[in-house]
Design a protein that fits this description.
Elements lengths: L4 H21 L9 H30 L4 H50 L2 H5 L3 H19 L2 H22 L1 H7 L2 H39 L1 H6 L3 H54 L4 H42 L21 E8 L8 E8 L4 E5 L6 H8 L7 E6 L2 E2 L5 H5 L2 E4 L8 E2 H5 L8 H10 L3 H5 L8 E2 L8 H15 L3 E5 L7 H15 L3 E5 L11 E6 L2 E6 L1 H7 L2 H16 L1
Parallel strand pairs: 3-10, 3-11, 6-9, 9-10
Antiparallel strand pairs: 1-2, 1-4, 4-5, 7-8, 11-12
Helix pairs in contact: 1-11, 2-3, 2-6, 2-11, 3-5, 3-6, 5-8, 5-11, 6-7, 6-11, 8-10, 8-11, 10-11, 15-17, 17-18, 19-20
């Protein structure tokens, strides 16, 4: 059975390639009305290429041999018109096919981007951003290089080849059969080279994905690399991945470099055969000089499209490897889809209930183990506990970034799985420990969740978030352009803008995840004041390791190993002298010691 491995693998690869091609062809469906015009141009171009050698050979026997110069001049004018028509047809086919292909590839990129945006967070827990970018950019670009314009030439060469074969067999059957003797050898050669190239090109696509992921990670963490003196290690790791990609490409190029001379050799062999046997027929009267001339021209034209088609076939292996990666991504299940009968979430009042909720990122390992909680409208709920206890998971389930494994999450008595995700999240605001700002103006970043907000609304949100004065001190105020991730603003300034972003959408439920950590004392006072304003009249869930920030919470939920082990107000839990009281005493002691 072990000996069957390569055969099974080869058959599987062929099946995958056919399936990939069939799926790629479906992208041509929207352009089925434009395709006939492109094919018309292709047929005209192919016909002009096939008729030329026949007319030239005919002229040798019927015009040149008889000294008919006047008719020869007319024939040359006719050939000039035919080839001019062919040039225009080829130009038309390139433009039309190019028009179709660029729109097709743009749609492919759009599908990839939409898929990435719709994938559940669990997918990104196990995927690298750089590899996803490589599929969107590098793999699609590989498809563009293989099919963008080459497909127009490929179609033209297929029709030219058919026309040339028919013409050769019609003019002289013996010479036609002799010329085609090398075709089976060429097909076998192409198949072997293509199989080797497909494997190598698949490796190149995988290694460029790994390289892109490494590059994206190292550029994003260059400050940490320099701070921890890891630059030389990062360079060494990059060199290894870069070398792997280089070697894979060198091997693929080596196969292509060996392939083209093989085709040239077969071309030369066929030409020599036609010249030798054609010369013999001409001398013995089996064929005219004009027929032999036509065949020599046809042989040259015959192998030109075969060379192009063969080269395209090997190059297409890289494109197929890229398409396989693209379709693998597009087939990734979007686990969190709106239910078929999902309705719009009505205006939220703010009651949040967990009913015996169990959840695990891995089905075999539950993170939450039967959580029950109820937050009444306007209440502040504090979630405290050690890292990995399940605090952030509770937040993710409220936003329906994940679906519960068992139980239910309800808002105002409505199961969040029964409403559309957009209508649910539209009414929930979130301020994270490390909020992301985007390249764009300050105003655009504040209006991220409400793009059509007016300038007055944006400024009012900024004032409520205690960041208006800072923004107006910037060189261009609200029109100041920010760099990637909000550079060059400080962590505290980015946090205040993130709070203004949450204020603007006026959420009925607010989530704060370590919103005051990693900022200086002065900025923390501004953030705390802004948060206090933001919390009024809203149901809020606050994750905080610094327990001094949640002493005013209506409920404090102490979470350990996926279960709520204590609940109550700060005063009640201190009086119980349990887990929370011990945590609070430890933090208070640490703060006193540091002072």
């Amino acid at each position: 059975m072990r000996g069957m491995g390569p055969v099974v693998a080869s058959e599987q690869q062929a099946t995958n390639q056919v399936s990939t091609l069939r799926r790629f062809v479906q992208y041509f469906q929207p352009y089925r009305k434009e395709i006939p015009l492109a094919l018309t141009f292709v047929l005209i171009g192919a016909s002009t290429q096939a008729i030329g050698p026949f007319l030239l050979g005919w002229s040798v026997d019927n015009l040149i041999a008889k000294g008919n110069l006047q008719d020869l001049l007319l024939l040359l004018l006719l050939l000039a018109l035919i080839y001019s028509l062919g040039i225009l047809a080829i130009r038309g086919q390139i433009m039309r096919v190019g028009w179709i292909m660029q729109r097709l590839l743009a749609q492919l990129r759009q599908d990839i981007f939409l898929k990435i945006q719709s994938l559940p967070l669990s997918f990104f827990d196990r995927s690298e951003a750089g590899d996803l970018m490589s599929r969107l950019l590098n793999d699609v670009n590989t498809v563009n290089q293989a099919f963008g314009q080459t497909i127009a030439q490929m179609l033209g060469n297929i029709f030219s080849l058919v026309g040339i074969v028919i013409a050769m067999l019609a003019i002289n059957l013996q010479l036609g059969l002799l010329s085609n003797l090398v075709v089976p050898v060429m097909i076998i050669t192409t198949s072997l080279f293509a199989r080797w190239a497909r494997d190598k090109f698949r490796v190149t696509r995988e290694t460029i994905g790994e390289l892109s992921a490494k590059l994206e990670e190292d550029i994003g963490s260059v400050r940490e690399a320099q701070a921890f003196n890891r630059v030389h290690l990062n360079i060494a790791e990059f060199d290894i991945l870069n070398a792997a990609n280089r070697d894979a490409n060198v091997e693929a190029v080596a196969i292509t470099a060996a392939f083209l001379p093989s085709i040239d050799f077969l071309n030369t062999l066929a030409t020599a055969g036609v010249l030798a046997y054609g010369g013999y027929l001409a001398v013995t009267g089996g064929a005219t000089v004009g027929v032999v001339t036509s065949f020599l021209l046809y042989v040259q034209q015959f192998f030109r499209p075969i060379q192009i088609l063969s080269q395209f076939y090997t190059q297409a292996q890289s494109a197929f490897a890229g398409l396989e990666r693209i379709f693998f991504l597009l087939d990734e299940p979007s686990q969190l889809k709106d239910a078929a009968n999902a309705t719009e979430m009505p205006e939220i009042q703010g009651e949040v209930t967990f009913v015996d909720v169990k959840f695990g990122y891995n089905p075999n390992q539950m993170v939450l183990k039967g959580v029950n909680l109820q937050a009444k409208p306007g209440q502040m709920i504090a979630l405290v506990g050690p890292t990995g206890s399940g605090k952030t998971t509770i937040i993710n389930l409220i936003l329906r970034f994940y679906d519960v494994s068992e139980g239910a999450v309800e808002i105002d008595g409505i199961d969040v799985r029964s409403v559309t995700q957009a209508s649910l999240r539209r009414q929930i605001g979130i301020v994270l420990q490390d909020n992301i700002l985007f390249s764009g103006t300050v105003a655009e970043n504040i209006a991220f969740g409400l793009p059509h907000a007016t300038q007055a609304e944006i400024e009012a949100a900024a004032q409520m978030a205690n960041v208006h004065e800072f923004i107006t001190s910037l060189p261009h105020g609200y029109s100041t352009q920010l760099g990637e991730r909000g550079a060059p603003l400080s962590q505290g300034q980015r946090q205040l803008i993130s709070i203004a972003r949450a204020v603007l959408i006026n959420p009925k439920i607010l989530i704060l995840d370590e919103a005051t950590s990693s900022i200086d004392t002065r900025t923390e006072a501004l953030v705390q004041n802004a948060i206090a304003r933001l919390l009024k009249g809203r149901t809020s869930f606050v994750i905080a390791h610094r327990l001094s920030t949640v002493t005013q919470a209506d409920q404090v939920l102490v979470i350990q190993q996926g279960q709520i082990v204590e609940r109550g107000t700060h005063t009640e839990l201190i009086a119980e002298q349990g887990v929370y009281a011990n945590l609070y005493a430890l933090q208070l002691g640490a703060a006193t010691t540091s002072v």
